[in-house]
Amino acid sequence: MEASTKKIKKTIRIVDLPAIALPIAREEEESYNRIVAEINRRWEKQKQNPNLVNDKLKMAILILEFAKMYSDIKMSMKQMQMEQGKRHDELNKMLAQFESNIDEILLNIES
Questions:
Q1: For 15, left (φ over 0), alpha (ψ -120 to 50), or beta?
Q2: How far is it, in rounded angstroms, from Cα 60 to Cα 55?
Q3: C-alpha–C-alpha distance, residues 50 and 17, integer Å
Q4: Is the full-model pTM beyond 0.90?
Q5: Alpha carbon distances (Å) from 25 to 2, 8, 29, 36, 74
Q6: Residue-wise pLDDT tens for the chain (111 aa)?
Q7: β-strand 20-25 against 7-12: which pairing, if any?
Q8: How far is CA 7 from CA 18, 27, 28, 65, in A?
Q9: What is the 3-state secondary structure (H, E, C) of the chain?
Q10: What is the chain's Cα-based Rg?
């Protein structure tokens, strides 16, 4: 197994649950650290919300927040791909026009 794909045991603590040992790729450790920190930060914020009377509601809000972030990112990526596709089409049209112009110049030189 290559060093880049080597799995490590990462112990994480999220929300107020017992520690969880996860096998993760070493190169993903930093990403997991950021994710766990963000989950715990948002959980602490939910715990302070007096309108949420139990942990199930708090967890539901937390899940909803992450689902919204995921959806927003996915939609942004889709829009970027569409924009890149449009740019690609525009470049292809420009190249086709350029090729046509070159062909016309070459034909005029030959005549």
A1: left
A2: 8
A3: 21
A4: no
A5: 11, 6, 7, 16, 24
A6: 455 578 999 999 999 899 999 999 999 999 999 999 999 999 999 888 888 888 889 989 999 999 999 999 999 999 999 999 899 999 999 999 989 888 888 888 866
A7: antiparallel
A8: 22, 9, 9, 29
A9: CCHHHCEEEEEECCCCCCCEEEEEEHHHHHHHHHHHHHHHHHHHHHHCCCCCCCHHHHHHHHHHHHHHHHHHHHHHHHHHHHHHHHHHHHHHHHHHHHHHHHHHHHHHHHC
A10: 26
And the tokens for 36? 């766990």
- Which pair of structure tokens corresponds to residue 73? 């990112």
